[in-house]
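Tip: read the tokens left to right.
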């Protein structure tokens, strides 16, 4: 299946493709397009749209797109995924940046990734390791009780 979102991804637009490929659609093809073309490309390609104005999957209420996907696909029974969702939420929702101690670090990686990599597909490939590593950390029993600064 094809999935389409806005170009120049950071945070939600890297986290969501990682989630899609890992838990929803392992063969997903991710398309990054200009923001004003997301819905038209999705319709033309028969793709799901996400994290864009008017998209099938996007922010709802106080939830980021990553959290919307978790709810929609019934993935909330995975405690590690829910821990990761709290980090993604903090990094993606500016008003909630301080809601998780790792939020600012993930935000910084997302913003820095845009500076470090000009190709969106390569950025997704490189960024996916970050989410693999964070998810692996979130599976540890001590991931929710680590010392705070």
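Filled-in amino acids:
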């Amino acid at each position: 299946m094809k999935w389409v979102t806005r170009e120049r991804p950071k945070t939600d637009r890297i986290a969501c493709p990682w989630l899609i490929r890992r838990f929803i659609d392992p063969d997903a093809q991710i398309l990054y397009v200009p923001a004003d073309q997301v819905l038209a490309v999705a319709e033309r390609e028969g793709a799901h749209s996400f994290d864009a104005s008017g998209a099938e999957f996007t922010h709802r209420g106080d939830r980021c797109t990553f959290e919307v996907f978790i709810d929609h696909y019934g993935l909330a029974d995975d405690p590690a995924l829910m821990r990761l969702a709290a980090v993604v939420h903090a990094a993606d929702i500016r008003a909630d940046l301080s809601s998780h101690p790792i939020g600012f670090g993930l935000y910084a990686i997302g913003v820095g990734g845009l500076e470090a990599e000009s190709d969106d597909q390569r950025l997704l490939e490189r960024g996916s390791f970050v989410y693999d590593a964070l998810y692996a950390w979130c599976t540890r029993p001590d991931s929710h009780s680590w010392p705070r600064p």
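Helices lie at 12-24, 38-45, 65-72, 79-92, 103-116, 120-138. The longest helix spans residues 120-138.
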